Amino acid sequence: MPEDPHILIEPNGAVCLVTLNRPKVLNALTPAMLQALCEALEAQQENPQIRVIVLTGDDRAFAAGSDIPTLAQASPIDIFRLDTRRYWERLRAIRLPLIAAVRGFAYGGGCELALLCDLIVATENALFAQPEIKLGIIPGAGGTQRLAKAIGPYRAMEMILTGEPINGRQAYEAGLVNRLAPAEQCLSTALELAQLIASRPPIAVRLAREAVRYGVETTLLQGLDLERRNFLMLFDTQDQAEGMQAFLEKRPPHFEGK
Prior knowledge:
It is built from twelve helices and ten strands. The protein is an alpha/beta fold. It has a six-stranded mixed beta sheet with strand order 1-2-3-5-7-10, with helices on both faces. A four-stranded mixed beta sheet has the order 4-6-8-9.
């Protein structure tokens, strides 16, 4: 993958930090930016050393939404041809756990990008919003669906119908954010969480993640079926044998992803 200055990649052991780097436009998620992000994440998931990805922006913005001047002149067929949904489907298909470290704005597509991640670490003054209603449109990259599942339909309805933001503390209390951290510690907190997850058996992490995400998107019975299937599959892994043997021998396990 050719280097893109708008996406910075910093592998560190089993964790890769991916930084959105268009600060002049608040890391706005243009089609070119989404394409570059897809390529960066897809490349990292093919690296056998990487087990967890942390996605962040800068102190001012995690990511803002789309290029409004361009959208203002667009027709429905223009939007159809642009087909940004294909990028969001590629992001959704990333197999590694994704942790969003949110400082500053996560507006519109930026909020939807955070929602697409598996865990969110944020500062108290981070701002999450789906302000599309103020432009005469609605969220179009999963915001109406994922936000309602994350914080409940009533809180989500207020955010989407008013377009007003909530801060990191409110997002944490609503269940959208996993951990709050001071601004200077947000990224390090996210990286510590990533290292903790990376220390767990990677096959089990992947199958557990799959079960949770599938269960949110389907019925309880379908989720239970997948959970049981994945549970049984793990008894054919070396990491399962190592984890249980280490427990019996009262020593730390050494997981190899096999």
